[in-house]
Amino acid sequence: MSFRITGLPAEDFAALFALSDEELARRGAVRQIADGRVPSYPCRVSLTDARAGDELLLVNYEHHPVSSPYRMRFAVYVRKGEETYDKVDEVPEQLRIRTLAVRAFNAEAMMVGWELVDGHQLEAAIERPVCRSSGGLSARPLRRTRVLRRPCQPGLKARSRRRFRPV
Hints:
Helix content: 10-25%
Oligomer: single chain
Strand order of the largest sheet: 9-8-6-7-10
Number of strands: 10
Strand content: 25-35%
Distance between the termini: 24 Å
Structural class: mainly beta
Order of helices and strands: EHEEEEHEEHHEEE
């Protein structure tokens, strides 16, 4: 079974880095410089962690713009000059090292299942039967971080697993 993971669109954030701190504040955003913490600040564009000294913006982003009660927005970190992560059948290290909240949505953007997953087990979660009938998945790290979207491909073949919970 194939899957695709994408980061947020780099073009949505590029112009923000040219703004002053005051202009960013008016938009509800904050400029920060990454310290040396591990794991570090997760860039939601490149799906890599920041290195000490990297310039970051913390912005509010609508990552699930749907017409349902599950419309979502949250604070995300983005790093200056990054390209959007877009790979098939590859899980970035940023997701591997974190616990993820994985949610499945149907075509009407209603949640049909959820699961807490160790990042090393993300492929197994993607293969669960609920994914086969879903309109897409969202995986969100649980610590100070947010969102990537992965559209579910129609016609996925999946093995039966136990941990996805129907809503």
